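Q: I have 127 residues here and want to know how they pack in 3D. Can you give me a structure?
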Amino acid sequence: QVQLLESGGGLVQAGGSLRLSCAASGRTFSSYAMGWFRQAAGKERTFVAAISQGGTSTRYADSVKGRFTISRDNAKNTVYLQMNSLKPEDTAVYYCASARGGLTIRVPTTTADFASWGQGTQVTVSS
């Protein structure tokens, strides 16, 4: 089982930037795809971005394309989410997740494809 710890959330004005980090332990980090999801108050958890094991392939939700960038450093067992041009609608709790083993897809995007989740970090964007 992997343990995931997110950090970097906070309060920012619209148009600002934040960088989220997720440190992993307890599992061979480089063997699994990683993803970021978010959940706004009263809404379902939704996909934000994901990255393949080696970091060469990425996928993004349409709502964040061109503004968010996912990356990973396998030497540091850490995945990042750089968020630029933030909007009030980006306000949510952001969760880091580690993909299940044995997947045939390199970059999963559904919650069912992820086995382990962090506790989440709050991102609030003021208008």
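Q: Anything worth noting?
A: The mean pLDDT is 96. The two ends are 39 Å apart (CA to CA).
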